[in-house]
Amino acid sequence: MAAVKEFGHGYAGGSGFADAYDVLVVGAGAVGLAAAAELGSRRVRCLVVDHDDRTGDHSPRAKIVNVRTREHFRRWGLADELKYTSPLGSDLPSTAVFVTRMNGHLLARFDNAMNGSQVPNNLYAEEAQWVPQYALEDVLRRYVTSRPGVDLRVGHEFLDARQDDSGVTARIRAVGTGETHEVRCRFLIGADGPRSRVRDLIGARMTGTSSLSRNCTIVFRAPDLAHRHPFGRAIMYWLVNDDVPGLLGPMDDKGLWFFTATRMTDNDLDGLDLVGLIRRTTGLHDLDVEIIGADPWVAHSLLADCYSRGRMFLAGDACHLNPPHGGFGMNMGIGDAVDLGWKTAAVLQGWGGEGLLRGYESERRPIHTRLVDEAVSYHNTFNHQLVRPGMEETGLVGEATRQEVGGLIELTKIYDFKSLGLVLGSDYRQSPLVVSDGSAPPPVSSLVYTPSAHPGCLAPHLWLRDGSSLYDHFGPGLSLLVTSGDPVDAEPLLAAARTRGVPMSLVAPRDVRLPARYEARYTLVRPDQHVAWRGETLPEDAYALLDHVCGNVRRRQ
Questions:
Q1: DSSP annotation of 124
Q2: Is the pTM for the entire model greater than 0.85?
Q3: Of 135-144, 207-216, 532-541, which gets the smallest average pLDDT?
Q4: Which residues in 448-471 are b (16+ Cβ under 10 Å) and which e?
């Protein structure tokens, strides 16, 4: 058995692995890479392993990057790179179109779907983007491999791990050679997907409803398709018909498409005419189609019954699975990665206490529960539930039926595309790491996002007159926003932070809109841009406030 590499610096022997790492991330998909990006941006040494290299993978995974995820990419300095390296280009209209077939009838359309319009909006710093997951992973992969503390090892399989009071010892096997290595780390993040080995290792199990529906996503090349329909460019085309209902959308600007058939009786593709399926659903029976691949999948509504044990944590699909409607899955997982990333870094750097990582599940689980439930409700009004007899007919019957269906779509599917209340309004108001100010929280809504600096909420955004985002002024640690008066008055809290070794930036943009936006003179903002505390005056005990929001439980006792 290979010798255990204890904590230290440098690289060991012929294996090329470092003596030890601060964090081991299992899984190099979007969530694992996002965890490495957050950790790497904070100069945390981490090892990322995955049995698959995932490069050149054009499988039809998540395609919507919502505004909150794009704001994280902005913090990492990657938002523009993601926008301009997308295989779909940077000018694709963020429009969702409902039609009977691609040569059929228009039923409804949603412009600015997912808030993807590039017109600046004070509610957020980045618009949403329709981009294949493999392209997003490419951007993250380039970033994490550029960070001096991040070691990315694809073609290396996580086998198992054991933990003690000071860290975790993991066994990793090189897929090509079978050579096994033991590495030492202080924490382990399991971002290893639905069949998570880390989840099994910590004894967690998935609970909820499995097999909500059977579906199949086909990736195909059809260079002429974009020019064979009258509905204009869009991020997705919902095909509502009684024959082959489903969802169609572009994956690049050169003729690569995906189609998700939503009414499959089983996942067996043997004998299924995939080309014929595409031609039938589009109505273009002479369309030139090249099948690239097909991926049968099952929709689930599942949450892990626990997210951690000791020094090992779950993130992404390893702890939550939901139908893809609303685009919550990958974005929710990247939110997990950010939450774990900054908290783990704070603990490793000495300013975060033991309560900080204990707050991971208490903060994230309510959001997971809410978003998974929303995705299930969207799933229950998928295409085949919208079909009505006669909707493809010509004449009065067809026209009247399409008007009925179009109205139904506008009423029921708006939640799929206008869910800013969920994307930005999901908060940590019940978190043990925020300090209540006794005020009423903003109303809960799926559609409407109400900016609020209520503790636990996402700090309200504004575009400033110099062209910058307010978020650009927040620091990598805590940020103390002063909305009015002389910023010098904030010195007692800043001095307490220096004494405690807590990184804290002073932010005082002198914008007349800020007092009304934040409803307090002082607001303490966490590294994830959520509000930890606010007040008209500084707290009487600045050290108690810092201990509370930094999870220093022992100091508070």
A1: B
A2: yes
A3: 207-216
A4: ebbbbbbbbbbbbbbbeeeeebbb
